[in-house]
Amino acid sequence: MRWNLCRTVFVWLVVMVLSSFLHSQTGSGAERAYSFVDPLSGSSEGGNTFPGATVPFGMVQWSPDTTADGWYRYKDQTLRGFSLTHVSGAGCSIYADVPVLGLVGPVEDSGKIPAEIVSGFSHDKEVASPGYYSVVTADGIKTELAASERSGIARITFPEGQLHTVLIKASDSANVKDSGRAHDETEVQVRANGTIVGKVESGGFCGTLDNYTLYFVMSFQGKAQTHGAWTDVVQPGASSAKGHRAGVYVTFPASSEPIVLKAGISFVSVENAEANLRAEISGWDFDAVRKQARDRWVAALGRAQVDGGSPDDLRIYYTALYHMFLSPNVFSDVNGDYIGFDGKVRRLRTGEEQYANFSDWDIYRNTIQLQAWLDPEQTSQKLQSLVRDAEQSGWLPRWPVANDVSYIMGGDSPANVIASGYAFGARSFDVAGALKFMVHSATKSGTGPHGGSERPYLDEYLKNGYIAVGTDGMRESAASIGLEYASADFATSRLADTLGDHDDDATLLKHSGSWRSIFDPESRLIRPRLADGSFVKGWDPEHLMPRHHSWDVANQFGFEEGSSLQYSLMIPFDYAGVMAAMGGDEQELPRLEKFFSTTTGWGVPGFTVGNEPDFCTPYVYLWTSQPWKVAEVVEKTRREAFHTGPAGVPGNDDLGATSGVYVWSALGLYPVIPGVGAVALGSPLFKHVVLEIGGGKRLEIDRSGEGIYVQSARLNGDALNSAWLPLDRLNAQINRLQFVMGTTPNRSWATGDADRPPSYKVTDER
């Protein structure tokens, strides 16, 4: 009897301890993660992030704008309004549709066209957290924002005793004035019941020909006292406006009660915008919407929890993780409707969602992998969205904005996105259909929307193995475009191999060796070729050449946003071949030492952490005799390039891709090779990590000891002698990766030839 009682007590204690642990992982631990996120990070020094309210991958991203082209610049001191749509960290402006702004007193008293009215503000009266934003402007108006997926709610509290006015700047989207379109179709109307509806036309991302139409609906709690409209002049009492500079305003009597405003959007119709709003925010409880958004973020951030770092480390990590969960964005409505690439309204089956805004050139390097690993089902919907786009347009879209293609950046990055997402666990989509379009892009030239090409100069690339450099069209970036094609060919070959398509696998794997056709044996670097086959003359790989590009970025002739030194290391699928061609350890290690001596800044020939071609390059050391050098570069990058505060992101965040560098390096992992389901082992920052990796599996990462250098590693108790971990080895329900760290390198760990990661050695014989 006594033994049974003791056993019962023991079992009860074990259950309580386990329950407490699980609660700490899924409850309070995730709440703690939420508290470390700073949405203002990256809003200064070119990070181009926004601080406003949204949910993970939400269509609505309701945020303040300080510039006419829809950016929030931390150093600015005036707000132009709070617009409903954004993308985070892009290099060019887009969206910022339908800004809303509170105004004390009548419109007429301002002496300005309402579109020109701004409000002063200071950061000491500003609060930003995931799913919520608030600020008190200089006129004493407090604006609070919270968001659902396709809808949002604002609570605007005015100073007592003064007339309340709310401006809806319908024609103030980011690129209205610069896209070359008159936007005469922009419309806004105040209905008899006080609801405001309208549509906005915009586009022109990075000066391209893409366009979209956004529909919106707004309603207020309580009846407005008066309303009016404006275009070039204010029209009191008018109920509608159309065209350039169109907007409306509503006024409410002086009261101590805040004005509560709800908004819904759709890319299909006003009716769908109304349905989205009804389905997501049926009442007027601002705090309830805020809590729902918070709960969504707690759940998302809780899938990749860390512990055992400094408060600053935790703040940088969770903020970076937050940035990785902002895009791509939901594009379909609650009823499944979305507007296709063919301009037709289409309806999805129950449970499906369409996504838009794929910054593919950026996110294929680390972001889609983490999204797929942590949530394979949702990421499968994202990949299926690209397949639908291709079915409707004939091609996988390059940098799609809404339901149009922008063709921004060179290469064929959608192939890398799809292959990498699949490799990291996103499998519930039409994989065979995706491969068909990937192979089509890699082997058949043709034109897509707006007369553009998925792979410019493809015939030349297939014939010669390279694209001749020049000053016309995209030829100024010919060498880097060819290297991007090689990466896409490799990634597509991996997916073809997985699906048993061995003919396309062999062909495209061979094509991925095209980097050798522009490898210069004299400088032992990638070097552009001219149309006659000769290498460019007067070429100095150590310095940037004069800029031959209309964009305001540093370019070396032949390369897009980079130099030969940078792009020569952007061939991770054949690093063994690259290292051998560069002269092996004896010649290449000193050059790598020089290359990595700089970890920040644009316009330098060395490592630039904010530049996508450099993301994978620290891990090239794993293919040398000094793999411990990875830890030195990673640690220097973490400490010198990323920070807390508004300037915390080193350059454009590019829809979470730059943030992804920090997240992966902090975990001690990196997805180096596109299209391959494996991670390189680096230098873990935190003592304990818990990743929910889909399929009910978990990966726990623990580090013991001090220092940045790996002394040894174990997976589920078995010793790891290589710094390369294929994902199919994570076959337990709970997988444990253990690092023992030290303050000096262990020069025998992962240094043997057999311990190096794989290299897909191919020769491009044409």
Chart the SSEs and their pairings.
Blueprint: H1 2-35, E1 63-65, E2 78-79, E3 81-83, E4 100-104, E5 119-129, E6 132-137, E7 142-147, E8 151-157, E9 164-168, E10 187-190, E11 196-203, E12 211-220, E13 226-230, E14 234-236, E15 240-242, E16 247-252, E17 259-266, H2 270-280, H3 286-301, E18 304-307, H4 311-324, E19 329-330, E20 337-339, E21 345-347, E22 355-356, H5 360-363, H6 367-374, H7 376-393, E23 400-401, E24 404-405, H8 413-423, H9 431-443, H10 458-464, H11 478-498, H12 502-511, E25 519-520, E26 525-526, H13 564-567, H14 575-581, H15 584-595, H16 629-640, H17 657-667, E27 669-670, E28 678-681, E29 688-692, E30 698-704, E31 709-715, E32 718-720, E33 724-726, E34 734-742
Parallel strand pairs: 30-34
Antiparallel strand pairs: 1-3, 2-5, 4-9, 5-6, 6-7, 7-8, 8-17, 9-16, 10-11, 10-15, 11-12, 12-17, 13-14, 13-16, 18-29, 19-22, 20-21, 23-24, 25-26, 27-28, 28-33, 29-30, 31-32, 31-34
What does this molecule look like?
- The structure is a single chain.
- With 766 residues, this protein is an alpha+beta fold.
- Among the domains are: 63-299, Beta-galactosidase, Chain A, domain 5 (Distorted Sandwich); 337-453, Glutathione S-transferase Yfyf (Class Pi), Chain A, domain 2; 456-568, alpha-1,2-mannosidases domains (Glycosyl hydrolase family fold, Up-down Bundle).
- 28% of the residues lie in helices and 20% in strands.
- It has 17 helices and 34 strands.
- A 10-stranded antiparallel β-sheet has the order 2-5-6-7-8-17-12-11-10-15. A 6-stranded mixed β-sheet has the order 18-29-30-34-31-32, covered by helices on one side. A 5-stranded antiparallel β-sheet has the order 4-9-16-13-14, with no helix packed on it.
- Strand 5 (119-129) and strand 6 (132-137) form a beta hairpin.
- Helix 7 crosses helix 9.
- The relative contact order is 0.09.
